[in-house]
Amino acid sequence: MPYRWNQTSDTEQELCLWPHNSLPPRGAMIVVLAVFLFGLIPLLAVLGSVLLWGLLPFLLLTVLGLWLAFEMNYRARSMFEVLTLTGTKAHLVHHSPRSGQKEWSCNRYWARPEMHKKGGPIPNYVTLVGDGREVEIGAFLSEKERIALYDDLVSRLKGPAAA
Question: What's the CATH code, domain 3-21+80-156?
């Protein structure tokens, strides 16, 4: 699961959420290198001719485009969320490379999770409601992970002793 609960003290819990990354940076490097090496194979037939210099830029543009796509993906997926539950307060911080840091907090007694089966931007959309606001949590998780997150939030938000 790309989220983890930490018991930071007797009265404080912390939930850390992050997007799943199926391809680590080392794997991306191997893919880019493999595309480059397999792209060189057809160029062996034109080695030593002027045609090589006409085809080589296309291979290099392909490799560069693939590398840039991986970099943009990793930058977009560097977001994470931290929900801190104390005895009386619920505090959510959403860190995103595009929009910066967004914060939400309310009295823990009034905070409640809601699951929107349909009608949200994604199926089983999970939000936290409290203090007159509704904020999303874990929108980058898979559908099954959002369902498990919702169940965890329901049990943990019942009270400071519920965990």
Answer: 2.30.29
- What are the residue ranges spanned by the domains of the chain? 3-21+80-156, 25-76
Amino acid at 47: L
Does the model's pTM come out above 0.85? Answer: no
Q: State the Cα–Cα distance between residues 148 and 140, nearest whole angstrom.
A: 14
The structure tokens 């009295």 sit at: 107
pLDDT score at 10: 86
Query: CA 77, 155, 96: angle at the middle one, nearest 5?
Result: 20
Neighbours of 16 (CB within 10 A): 14
Q: Cα–chain-centroid distance for residue 20?
A: 6
Looking at the DSSP bridge assignments, the partners of residue 89 are 107
